[in-house]
Amino acid sequence: MRLPDLNRFHFDKVAHFVEFLVISFLSMRAIMKTWCGAGIIANFVITIIFVTFFAYADERHQIFVANRTCSFYDLIFDYIGAAAGILIFTYREEQDLI
Asked: Does residue 15 sit within a domain?
């Protein structure tokens, strides 16, 4: 009995999406709680800068890891996940769910 081929289901891209959704959601929450008077736009910009740096560093370090590669498509899914996390946080903040 063989295990299913996870690459066929693009498991890697889903993992990148979910990972950066969580990172951006938690980053936005931490920034909002730390700099309460900064406003939503400033917090959004700070979160984007942090997540962009983190995504680039995550992809860049894979050059030095055996059997891993740096992929532009992974970076795209990092950004899509980050945008989803920020949108979910903003929606929940507006609904006072957090």
From this structure: no
Distance from C-alpha of 13 to C-alpha of 84, rounded to nearest angstrom: 14
Determine the pLDDT at residue 18.
95
Give this prediction's pTM: 0.80
86 within 8 A of 20, measured Cβ to Cβ: no
Query: Quick one: CA dihedral 55, 59, 65, 71, positive or negative?
Result: positive
In a domain, 29, yes or no: no
List Cβ neighbours of 54 (8 Å cut-off, separation of 6 or more): 23
Distance CA 36, CA 8 (A): 44
pLDDT digits (tens, 9 = 90+) for 25-81: 999 999 888 877 777 788 888 999 999 999 999 889 888 888 878 888 889 999 999
Range of the domain at 68: 38-98
How far is CA 37 from its chain centroid? 24
Which token pair is 52?
Answer: 């962009």
